[in-house]
Amino acid sequence: MQELEPIKRFYSLLQELDHTFVKVKEDFQQEVRCQPGCVDCCHACFDVSLIEAAMISYHIQDSNRKSAPAGFSARAQVAKKAIEKKLQEVPGGVNSEQVLEELPFWRIRCPLLSEEDRCELYQVRPITCRIYGLPTAIRGQGHVCGLSGFEKGTQYPTVKLDTVFGYLQDLSRSLASLLGDKALLLCEKRFFIHEAILMDLPMPTQTASVFSTLQP
User: Fold this and answer.
1) CA 204, 209, 212, 214 torsion-angle sign
2) How far apart are CA 182 and CA 172, in angstroms?
3) Letter string b/e over residues 154-183, b meaning 16 or more CB atoms within 10 A of that residue's CB
4) Does residue 172 surpass a pLDDT of 80?
5) How high does pLDDT run on average in the chain?
6) Angle CA(81)–CA(59)–CA(24) in degrees, nearest 5?
7) Phi–psi pair at 206, nearest 5 degrees
8) Could you say which DSSP state residue 151 is in?
9) pTM score > 0.85 for this model?
10) Cross-strand bridge partners of residue 121
11) With bands split at pLDDT 50, 70 and 90, how would you rate the model's confidence at 167?
12) pLDDT per residue over 27-86, tens digit each?
């Protein structure tokens, strides 16, 4: 089934990165300090690819259909206003790459986070959430969680985000070709979480059924 392929490959990537997280945490127990109840990463601002946004959008709609308790839309509007305010405060002359580098330092609560500090879409959370807490590298710059115990100047297993994001972009193009003209216009775009929640992305029944039957 053609609709299955990009989503199946995407879910395989999620599983691979989940395995990587578990392995690094086992090998570096003093350095990886992620634990239930810590929501530091849930206040870091970041964007996601089209295929991640489509996954979030589908499961939000599915949650609404099942009348599950959720305040996704209201929280998305709060996050939207907070990000817009931050963008308005960016000084003139600052380019988009500089803004992207500053995003993780914008302390904005994720709209997927419930009032009880629980991720309401944990099973289908984005890739950035899954590998937060591990050493990562993007555009030649290394990054670690500020609460971790990784020491500067020491070599550790590192997730190469340029490679991961490039692969996500390829998967997004493949998915967009199945979703129609509107998605094709969006396949190169990256989305804030609130945009994924609020987006109106037409999804053919067959493609939606794949999101429904496959689980990361």
Assistant:
1) negative
2) 13
3) eebeebebeebbeebbebbbbbbebbeeeb
4) yes
5) 87
6) 90
7) -65, -40
8) P
9) yes
10) none
11) very high
12) 999 999 999 999 999 998 899 999 999 999 888 877 665 555 458 999 999 999 999 998
Sign of the CA dihedral running 115, 118, 124, 130 = positive
Residue ranges in the chain assigned as alpha helix (H): 4-27, 50-65, 72-88, 96-102, 127-131, 161-179, 181-186, 193-198, 205-213
pLDDT at site 50: 93
In 3D space, the residue among 124, 123, 110, 126 whose CA is nearest the CA of residue 72 turns out to be 110
**In DSSP terms, which residues pair with 189 in a beta bridge?**
none
Instruction: Give how far Cα 25 sits from Cα of 11, 18, 21, 119, Å.
Output: 21, 11, 6, 21
* Spatial distance between the Cα atoms of 183 and 71, rounded to a whole number of angstroms: 26
Cβ-Cβ contacts under 8 Å for 55 (sequence gap 6 or more): 7, 10, 124, 211
Q: Residue 192: enclosing H or E segment and its boundaries? A: strand 191-192
Q: How far is Cα 186 from Cα 127, in angstroms, rounded to an integer?
A: 19
Widest CA span in the chain? 50
With tokens 């094709």, the residue in question is 184
- Lookup result for tokens 């070599």: 155
Single out the residue of 62, 48, 47 nearest to residue 172, CA to CA: 48
**3 state DSSP class of 102:** helix
